[in-house]
Backbone:
């Protein structure tokens, strides 16, 4: 019996040791893909997807790769959007990442050492320069874009009409915005749905007074004076319920959700939600660029793209696949599905056509909406974030909400965000 | 080994008594209604059209009663698949837990061996480590075993926790020694005693463990998220529900409808095992040692 | 219902030790290993190994993506020293537990007694258990709707009592209380079932004897019924305490630790260290501190049970 016990202990020790070695050893030879005997290479592709429709779109794209090159297959694996990056981290941490990794411009910083710079594999033209710029960190092109987005103000047309206000349009100012918000605050409804999400809040602050939370060499500067002034103004909107304050620090989508549900008459949201906001709302939805502050209307630009992991064993095949996944054929397909505003300039008009076709009764409004996107993109700048941006945006939620409810001052909150963020940036 | 208290003799209730009882029932119903209001609200929200989930002030009924939402849950994502996967994982996991826990509980309660009590304390201690911190090392282990993105990875790693052993051990310790004695005198060995005596008596406690374990597996989120790559093939229900939160808007009405649907299997299991539940815990050594 | 612990020498009819026709010590040892084997191997492989790794990790700076470096006890020093959140998370967890456990146990106990007298006991038990099996995401959505400004609670507070409701989840004073309330509502079902069973099991002869002796109502409750179910209460309190110290999902979904860090709990701190700051070593050290605390509290409970838990014999 003692022998059995000893054997069991020994086995256990071996397993622990093996595990420890694996963990310490770091890289395994997991390639994120595989090669069959006949030379067919299968690449793993990691992407977020929600509904079956979304997944079907991605499957179609994967198929396009094989259509172009029968010896190249793409094996899609998806995760829910909310959890994609949690999962991605764990995969990288354990060597399970795919060859083709979908990436967001805002998340780039955490993966600079893990994605292969694409350099000359990116075609010189075809892409809207804003779209490639957003995925280019520190001079390295880390992903090839498939879409492009900016922040916009969504407004309740019915409410504006009922109040006799001029609708927001390109060129409208912060003062117009404040006026509209105040006028529309009545009967328990707020003029503006506030937010603490990074793009939603920071874009409006940028437009207000050119406040930037991050320096040019990507270091945090939340406690900079312009930021303090901007946040002071923003938080001031909460006075008299003009701005609807998020109900908790967990309500990341507060502003736009309140808007769509008819409780707030305006909100800042991304251009990627044009389709869903218009269809979900029970009222007419209008879209305008962000109100112009001292330096004109500005916005942050964000987008998504596909990159190649450094450990991919089949990089040449991956580059080839990327060309197809972000090529004009794929872009046309996605745009025809109305997925998002495309990164390729050639396909951009088709997006407008899609939206108009989807909502012909509102053709004019929809057209204007897309024109707003184009206008805002002209003055858009990419938001480059630090590699601990997850932590920073969580802190933004927790501390900014205290400012909105009056429990803390902008200076204190921003100082806290800065101090805690600076540690790991 | 009856543990039911004998029923008191039936008496015709006096009017005062009956009034008291009726009032008590009404009050209890009111309290139940109050407690269940959030869930009634959940079902009501599940029936609202999209874009009205957060309409303020909240009302029970939206502009339309959309039973359609429940059907949409199954077309928006392959929700039936997640239910099937969930049933498989939770079912298999529960069986493994029942088998392993019953056996080890027997060893810890009815057999005498060196190191028994200290090993049991180690078991108990493992209950106090939060799962979140074990997730990454466990992932590494799964990778070594080649179990990433497999059903095995969903079933086995958390099937050997100490909770089942703890619960069943309490129960087994309550079985009178005389029964063991009698069986031994008849020449039965430990295996025989386990199968013929302990298990049959333990059915109620096993029922309890089954329900609690099933719920645990069914609602587990973080681990399946990290383990499963092919969500449409092997995803479980909580994972599937995350798919309603997309890049282009959240389908809150579908989330609520899916939540209502996902309660049903556990509810059915609970109703089926109700009788055993109450009887089971009673004899799990909680009214005695 | 006489129950006898196995190792007791008070078993009737035992008399003087005599040779028995039963498998020897050796065979019992063998079969014990056989029975305990699967669990022990399973636990060893699937729990002890990750636990061992976590112990190792806590002594390192172990980034998710990158190379680990040895730190010794620096992680622990950081948590107790510079980390602005850990101390607060510790305090919040204690406050949460201090409110949650008594509330949970009292509500479950009260309802268990009340339900037991009813004809529809089985129905009530199922109904009250439903919150425990509903997915947390649904619970969170509903409670947010109830708690938000212009939500149901605010509405009724205003129309019935004329009180203007605070912003429950965004106000530092009420956020943690709201999380406690939601958690109690969601979790008391388990203990309700435990207590219901224990109450069912109370021997009626004892109760009748007590009644004949003149103990009725409150006296009966306090001196007879409660002691009779004290073992169940012990089990419930211990398990509830252990899980309550590990609370994570409820505050995470309701308030994400905010406003500020008013609702941040220890496990949330651990999760954030691991999955947001991506320092697995720091996360592991936080988890070990939590483990030590839970172990201590549980040990105290076990020692204290002699004072108030009555085991039948």
Residues:
């Amino acid at each position: 019996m003692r022998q059995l016990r000893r054997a069991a202990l020994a086995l256990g020790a071996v397993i622990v040791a093996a595990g420890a070695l694996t963990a310490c050893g770091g890289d395994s030879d997991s390639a994120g893909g595989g090669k069959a005997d006949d030379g067919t290479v299968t690449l793993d592709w990691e992407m977020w997807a929600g509904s079956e429709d979304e997944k079907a779109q991605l499957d179609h794209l994967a198929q396009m790769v094989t259509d172009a090159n029968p010896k190249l297959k793409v094996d899609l694996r998806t995760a829910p959007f909310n959890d994609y990056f949690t999962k991605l981290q764990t995969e990288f941490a354990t060597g399970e990442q795919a060859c083709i990794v979908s990436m967001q411009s805002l998340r780039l910083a955490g993966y600079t050492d893990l994605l292969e710079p694409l350099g000359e594999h990116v075609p010189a033209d075809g892409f809207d320069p804003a779209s490639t710029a957003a995925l280019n960190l520190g001079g390295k092109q880390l992903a090839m874009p498939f879409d492009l987005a900016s922040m916009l103000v969504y407004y309740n047309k019915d409410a504006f009409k009922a109040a006799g206000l001029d609708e927001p349009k390109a060129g409208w100012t912060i003062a117009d915005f404040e006026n509209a918000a105040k006028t529309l605050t009545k009967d328990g409804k707020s003029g503006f749905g506030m937010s603490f999400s990074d793009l939603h809040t920071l874009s409006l602050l940028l437009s207000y007074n050119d406040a930037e939370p991050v320096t040019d060499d990507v270091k945090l500067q939340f406690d900079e004076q312009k930021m303090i002034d901007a946040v002071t103004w923003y938080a001031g909107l909460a006075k008299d319920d003009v701005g609807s304050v998020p109900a908790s620090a967990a309500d990341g989508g507060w502003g736009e959700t309140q808007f769509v549900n008819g409780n707030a008459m305006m909100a800042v949201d991304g251009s990627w939600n044009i389709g869903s906001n218009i269809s979900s709302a029970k009222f007419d939805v209008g879209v305008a660029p962000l109100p112009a502050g001292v330096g004109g209307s500005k916005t942050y630009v964000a987008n998504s793209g596909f990159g190649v992991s450094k450990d991919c064993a089949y990089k040449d095949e991956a580059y080839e696949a990327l060309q197809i996944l972000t090529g004009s054929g794929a872009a046309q397909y996605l745009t025809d599905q109305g997925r998002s505003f495309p990164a390729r300039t050639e396909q951009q008009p088709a997006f407008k056509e899609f939206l108009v076709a989807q909502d012909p009764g509102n053709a004019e409004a929809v057209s204007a909406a897309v024109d707003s996107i184009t206008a805002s993109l002209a003055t858009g700048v990419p938001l480059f974030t630090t590699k601990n941006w997850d932590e920073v945006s969580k802190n933004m939620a927790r501390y900014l909400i205290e400012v909105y409810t009056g429990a803390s001052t902008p200076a204190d909150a921003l100082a806290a965000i800065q101090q805690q963020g600076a540690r790991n940036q | 080994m009856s543990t039911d208290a004998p029923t008191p003799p039936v008496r015709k209730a006096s009017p005062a008594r009956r009034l008291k009882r009726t009032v008590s029932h009404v009050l209890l119903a009111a309290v139940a209604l109050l407690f269940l209001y959030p869930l009634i609200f959940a079902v009501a929200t599940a029936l609202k059209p999209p874009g009205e989930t957060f309409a303020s002030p909240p009302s029970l009924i939206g502009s339309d009663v959309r039973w359609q939402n429940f059907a949409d849950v199954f077309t928006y994502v392959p929700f039936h698949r997640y239910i099937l996967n969930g049933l498989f994982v939770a079912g298999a996991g529960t069986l493994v837990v029942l088998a392993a826990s019953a056996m080890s509980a027997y060893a810890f309660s009815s057999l005498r061996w060196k190191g028994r009590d200290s090993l049991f304390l180690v078991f108990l201690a493992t209950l106090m480590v939060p799962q979140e911190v074990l997730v990454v090392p466990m992932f590494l282990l799964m990778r070594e075993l080649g179990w990433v993105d497999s059903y095995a990875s969903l079933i086995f790693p958390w099937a050997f926790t100490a909770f089942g052993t703890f619960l069943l051990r309490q129960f087994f310790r309550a079985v009178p020694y005389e029964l063991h004695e009698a069986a031994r005198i008849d020449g039965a060995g430990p295996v025989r005693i386990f199968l013929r005596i302990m298990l049959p008596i333990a059915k109620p406690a096993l029922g309890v463990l089954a329900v609690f374990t099933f719920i645990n597996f069914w609602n587990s989120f973080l681990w399946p998220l990290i383990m499963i790559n092919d969500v449409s093939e092997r995803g479980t229900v909580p994972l599937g529900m995350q798919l309603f939160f997309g890049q282009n808007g959240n389908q809150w009405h579908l989330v609520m409808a899916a939540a209502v649907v996902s309660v049903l299997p556990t509810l059915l299991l609970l109703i089926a095992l109700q009788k055993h539940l109450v009887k089971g815990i009673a004899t799990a050594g909680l009214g005695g040692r | 219902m006489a129950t006898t612990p196995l190792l007791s020498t008070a078993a009737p009819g035992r008399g003087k030790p005599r040779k028995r026709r039963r498998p020897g010590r050796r065979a019992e040892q063998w079969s014990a290993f056989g029975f305990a084997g699967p669990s022990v191997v399973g636990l060893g492989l699937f729990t002890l190994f990750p636990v061992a790794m976590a112990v190792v990790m806590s002594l390192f700076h172990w980034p998710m993506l990158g190379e680990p470096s040895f730190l010794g006890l620096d992680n622990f020093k950081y948590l107790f020293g510079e980390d602005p959140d850990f101390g607060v998370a510790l305090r919040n967890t204690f406050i949460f537990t201090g409110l949650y456990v008594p509330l949970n146990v009292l509500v479950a106990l009260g309802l268990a007694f009340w339900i037991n007298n009813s004809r529809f006991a089985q129905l009530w038990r199922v109904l009250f258990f439903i919150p425990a099996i509903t997915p947390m995401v649904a619970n969170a959505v509903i409670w947010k709707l109830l708690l938000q400004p212009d939500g149901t609670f605010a509405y009724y507070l205003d129309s019935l009592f004329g009180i203007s409701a605070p912003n429950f989840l965004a106000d530092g004073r009420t956020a943690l209380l709201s999380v406690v309330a939601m958690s109690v509502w969601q979790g008391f079902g388990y203990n309700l079932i435990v207590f219901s069973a224990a109450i069912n099991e109370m021997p009626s002869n004892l109760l009748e004897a007590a009644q004949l002796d003149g103990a009725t109502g409150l006296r009966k409750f306090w001196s007879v019924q409660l002691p009779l179910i004290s073992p169940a209460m012990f089990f419930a309190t211990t398990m509830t305490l252990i899980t309550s110290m590990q609370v994570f999902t409820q505050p995470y979904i309701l308030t994400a630790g905010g406003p500020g860090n008013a609702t941040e709990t220890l496990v949330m701190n651990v999760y954030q260290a691991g999955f947001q700051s991506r320092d697995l070593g720091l996360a592991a050290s936080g988890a070990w501190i939590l483990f030590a605390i839970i172990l201590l509290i549980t040990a105290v409970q076990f020692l204290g049970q002699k004072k108030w838990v009555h085991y039948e014999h």
In short: Chain B has two domains: 15-69, 74-286. Strands of chain B lie at 245-246, 249-250.
